[in-house]
Amino acid sequence: MRNNVNAHDRYRRRRIIIGPAVQHCNPSETFPAVPMPARPREMPSPVTGVALWCCGLERSPGDIAAVAAWLSPAESARAARFGTEDLRRRWIAGRTTLRMLLAEVLGVQAPNVAIRRGVRGRPELADTGAGVDFNVSHTRGVALIGIARGLPFGTRIGVDIERADRDVGADRLARKFLTARERATLEDRTPDARRRLFLRYWTCKEAMSKATGDGLAAPFRMLDVELSESPRLVDGPAPYVPERWSLQSVAVPEGLLATLAIWRGPE
After folding, report:
1. CATH number of the domain bearing residue 19
2. What gap in Å lies between CA 247 and CA 249, rounded to an integer?
3. Over the chain, what is the mean pLDDT?
């Protein structure tokens, strides 16, 4: 990671809790003349070197207009392609919050954080020497943001967050995305228990696919995950070989499920 070792410590010392959100005591120190979006809530991280935040994405049109200038031309063009105004505002809220958090880590202003599309379109910092990796997941107006620094070179992270009450066709999707062993763990359970267990498997596999950048092209049905107090990958084809992966459940607010995946990069 970038040798700005005191950035996170400064952030922790300067924050104050206001209701469910996290606010800086003096945001104008870092972002002069730029309004701050609603602050995310920092989540307890299960891993040293990875910071996690959860934030709501509902913003007023005025709030969105105030921070939309932080976006790059490519990001602005992407935001304009969303089919509804609600989706556009939520995406802008998530991306500007990510920019704000990355800016604190890098010691720059949010508009100056250079983000590019990397391998398979996975977002990454343009400065690959900064030693910072990040990932974002959205679910119905809520975002989970992960930022890693100080991890071994080439390490990538992926996060996934889901609503615990998400209505999915668990039996149908299990046949498509789960291994035979995983499907067996769903048997002899109530429909709601099968749905919730499927979502736990899904957050693990989705987080891994986001770390590699494979997305929905990942071989989900070949990724064998064991769920316990700490989930783990037990089998999978390259690059999903168990010894290069760590899976961690994330303590998110009630009603949500989330997983952090850490990939120790390609060999």
Report:
1. 3.90.470.20
2. 7
3. 86
Whether residue 60 lies inside any domain: the answer is yes
**Residues 195 and 81 grouped into a single domain:** no
User: Which of 47, 24, 19 has the alpha carbon at shortest distance from 37?
Assistant: 24
**Residue 230 structural domain:** 159-263
Calpha distance 144→130 (Å, rounded):
22
Residues 6 or more apart from 8 whose CB is under 8 A from it? 51, 104, 105, 149
Reduced to 3 DSSP states, what percent helix, strand and coil does the chain have, rounded to the nearest 5?
Answer: 40, 25, 35
The whole-number pLDDT of residue 140 equals: 85
Band (pLDDT 50/70/90 cuts) for residue 267 is low
Between CA 252 and CA 267 the distance in angstroms is: 32
**What's the rounded mean pLDDT across residues 120-136?**
94
**How far is the C-alpha of 223 from the C-alpha of 242, rounded, in Å?**
9
